[in-house]
Design goal:
It is a multi-pass membrane protein. This protein is an all-alpha fold and about 325 residues long. It has 15 helices and no strands. It has one domain.
C-alpha cells in the first residue's frame, strides 16, 4: 500500500513555486531561475528506487532539460551582444526542447514510458506551462512556424503503431503541442483556453487509465468493470481528439476560424486532415472493450470495483453539454 510521502509533497510545492516564479519574472535570468527550480524539484518526484525504469526516465529528463537550460542561459547572457532575432530563435529552440516538440521530441515518449501515471500527468500539464508562456512572449517567432506542422505530423504518425498507452498519450501530447503552437502564433489568450481544456481532458483520461491499470490497449477487454466507465473513457478520448460535439472541439473550432481569417487556409486544412488520423488511435484505446467480449476471470468476482472519479464524470457530462453551446454559437 502506498504511503503518504511528505518529501514528494514538498518537491511538488517547490515545482509549483518555480513555475510561478517564471510567470511573474520580468527578466530572462529570473525566468531561468524559475525553470531550474522547477526542473530540480521534478527529478526527485519521478524517481522511485524500486523501479529501474524511473531511474532511466529521470536521467533522460535531467540531461535533456539541462541541455536546454544551458542554452537558454547562454542566450540570456549574449542578449546584449548578438542580434535580438538570433537570440529569440535560440530561446524558442530551448523551449521547444523542453516541451518535447518536434523535431526535438525523441526523449518524450521514452521518458513517459518509465513514469507512473501521476508523473505522466505532471509532465503533460504542469511542466508545459512555463515554456509555453515564454514562447508566447517572443515577438515575430519564426521558429514556431517550423515546428507546428512537424509536431502534428510526428504526433499523428508516431501514435498509430503503438500498443503502450503511455506512448500513445505521449504522441497525443506532441500532436496537441502543434495546435498550441498555432494558437500562440495567432493569439495570446487562445493558447491559454486550449491548454486549459486540454488539461481538463487529459487529467480525466489519465485518472481513468490509472484506476483501470491500463498500460496497453488490449487490457480494456480484460476488465470486468461496469461498461459505463468504458463509455466515459471513449467519450473523453473522442473529446481529446477534437470530435464534435464534444468539449475538445471548441478550441480547435476557434483556432480554425482564426486561421481562416488570417488566410492560413492550406496549413489549417492539413492540420484538420491529420487530426482525423489521430482519432484512429484514440478509438483503438476503447474499441476493443465494445467489439470483443470482456474476459471475466474467476478471481475478479470478489474484488472491489473502483469508484467513479468525480473529474471523469464531470468532464464527460460537460463534453456532452457542449452540443447546445455549439448550436447557439453557430446561430
Amino acid at each position: 500500500m502506498n504511503q503518504f510521502n511528505l518529501s514528494k509533497l514538498l518537491f511538488l510545492m517547490m515545482m509549483i513555486t518555480g513555475t510561478m516564479i517564471t510567470f511573474m519574472s520580468s527578466s530572462w535570468p529570473a525566468t531561468w531561475i524559475g525553470l531550474e527550480i522547477n526542473l530540480l524539484s521534478f527529478i526527485p518526484i519521478i524517481y522511485h528506487k524500486s523501479n529501474i525504469l524511473t531511474y532511466e526516465a529521470a536521467m533522460k529528463y535531467f540531461l535533456i532539460q539541462t541541455l536546454a537550460s544551458s542554452l537558454f542561459l547562454i542566450s540570456s547572457i549574449l542578449m546584449t551582444l548578438i542580434n535580438y532575432s538570433l537570440i529569440y530563435f535560440l530561446i524558442s529552440i530551448t523551449m521547444i526542447i523542453k516541451l518535447g516538440g518536434a523535431p526535438f521530441h525523441m526523449w518524450f515518449p521514452s521518458v513517459m514510458e518509465g513514469l507512473s501515471w501521476n508523473n505522466c500527468l505532471l509532465l503533460m500539464t504542469l511542466q508545459k506551462m512555463a515554456p509555453l508562456l515564454i514562447l508566447s512572449y517572443i515577438p515575430n517567432n519564426n521558429c514556431i512556424n517550423m515546428t507546428i506542422m512537424m509536431s502534428i505530423i510526428v504526433g499523428t504518425i508516431g501514435g498509430m503503431n503503438q500498443t503502450s498507452t503511455r506512448k500513445i498519450m505521449a504522441y497525443s501530447s506532441i500532436n496537441h503541442l502543434g495546435w498550441m503552437f498555432m494558437t500562440i502564433k495567432m493569439s495570446q489568450n487562445l493558447w491559454k483556453l486550449y491548454f486549459s481544456i486540454y488539461t481538463i481532458l487529459i487529467t480525466s483520461i489519465i485518472l481513468m487509465m490509472k484506476n483501470l491499470s491500463m498500460n496497453h490497449i488490449n487490457q480494456m477487454s480484460l476488465h470486468p468493470y461496469s461498461p459505463m466507465i468504458k463509455y466515459y473513457l471513449m467519450m473523453n478520448l473522442l473529446s481529446l481528439g477534437g470530435l464534435p460535439p464534444f468539449l475538445g472541439f471548441l478550441p480547435k473550432w476557434i483556432t480554425i476560424e482564426m486561421a481562416m481569417n488570417q488566410s492560413l487556409i492550406i496549413m489549417i486544412c492539413v492540420m484538420v486532415w491529420l487530426s482525423l488520423i489521430t482519432l484512429y488511435y484514440y478509438i483503438q484505446l476503447s474499441i476493443s472493450s465494445f467489439m470483443l467480449n470482456s474476459s471475466h476471470l474467476k478471481w475478479y468476482m470478489f474484488t472491489n470495483m473502483p469508484s467513479y472519479n468525480f473529474m471523469m464524470i464531470t468532464t464527460t457530462i460537460t463534453s456532452l453539454l457542449m452540443l447546445p453551446i455549439y448550436s447557439i454559437m453557430a446561430f
